[in-house]
Amino acid sequence: MKETGAITGISVAYSRATVDEIEAAGGDGVRATVSDLLARDGVEEAFAIQTCNRSEAYVVTDRTIDGSVALESFAPEVRGGAVRRLDHEESLEHLMRVASGLESLVLGEDQIIGQLREAYEESKSAGGIGPVLKDGVTKALHVGERARNETSINEGVVSLGSAAVRLAADEIDLTDGSAVVVGAGEMGTLAARTLDDTPVSEIVVANRTVPNAAFVAEEVETPAEAVPLADLATVIPDADLVIAATGSPDPVIRSEHVTGADRLVCIDIAQPRDIEPALADRDKVTLYDIDALEDVTRKTRESREEEAREVEAIIDEELDRILEAYKRKRADNAISAMYAGADRVKAREVDRAVSKLEAQGGLTDEQRETVEDLADALVGQLLAAPTRSLRDAAGEDDWETIRTALRLFDPEFDTLPEGPGASGSGHDAAPGDIEVPPGSVAEELDD
């Protein structure tokens, strides 16, 4: 028996997990994670997203147990309390909340929309996106856009980069200070822009690719310089603040880079970490990571509570829509398969009956039509009640009834061996995407 696939999800995010646990989950990036999941038994689709705040994966399987088993390898070394497991409905709702910024460390932040869209494209490139996840993720992106267009959830909201600057300002006086931003990506750019609104006198942007660092440096009005990562040991000791936000898989700031520093604040907002944790033990060096930003962002979260309630109303509305569509599709697939199997049997038996009647003296066209009409009527009347029951069952989330119906009305029962003593197949049918035959009772019930 084959059903329309259901989503199973897993999330390791900042609300339950530490930075190290988030880093430990998910393996070697989105594409590798998706490819690994697709290779597992029963997985038809896969999607993953990995940011500094979360590492999550979603699979589509015909049986939910296959989804749970497939995701066991996603965070095997992460403690159970840091892992959240999601069923189909929870996965859809969670993706909408993520896209809306309700699950972000900084409530309502905008960067997650781009990160979710990028993760979708990467998962698609890895062959992981099919009809179920396409509907789910694109719906989440739509909800995220609605949240920002119809509410003030992101009005004045800070990013992780600006939260890092705010944390630094509480620790040291930035007046006429020097700041080093390591990384020229989205988070590094946001950090540089936020620093531009502080009294620092100099911003240094360090990046593996210097032209990218120069581009960020040109975007700020504060005197700024672009340097390669190889110059970190030269620029960091003279700085007051370092904000690290690269995409490097290994730390880029180590002990030798801070030698000679005097009262240096380092804030690591990268995932994986950019700064060796051991630097926290150095004299005159204060190190913060993403976990430390929770307090900084709490006030923003509290001021957005009213907007968050409005966003949740949007999510409830859109979740109802996509679930209803999903339920209809599951029921309609089962009904289509049931009618397709019955129509194949009907066609075979009509041909057999007509052949026998013709051998007994021939049939007129009118008589042949009468036989065919009789067969159509029998199929329609026999399956009308199961059709209604299947749709009612889908509306009530009663998937066991759908499974039972498919076993009783096996769409492939016309392939069973013929002859005395022939019995049911005992196997699950796989009807695929078969349309309801034109003119059948199932089609009439849609009208």
TrEMBL record:
Pathway: Porphyrin-containing compound metabolism; protoporphyrin-IX biosynthesis; 5-aminolevulinate from L-glutamyl-tRNA(Glu): step 1/2. GO terms for biological process: protoporphyrinogen IX biosynthetic process from glutamate. Substrate binds at residues 51-54, 104, 109-111, 115. It catalyses: (S)-4-amino-5-oxopentanoate + tRNA(Glu) + NADP(+) = L-glutamyl-tRNA(Glu) + NADPH + H(+). The active site is at 52 (nucleophile). Residues 10-151 form the Glutamyl-tRNA reductase N-terminal domain. Keywords: NADP, Oxidoreductase, Porphyrin biosynthesis. Coiled coil: none annotated. Residues 167-296 form the Quinate/shikimate 5-dehydrogenase/glutamyl-tRNA reductase domain. Homodimer. Catalyzes the NADPH-dependent reduction of glutamyl-tRNA(Glu) to glutamate 1-semialdehyde (GSA). This is Glutamyl-tRNA reductase.
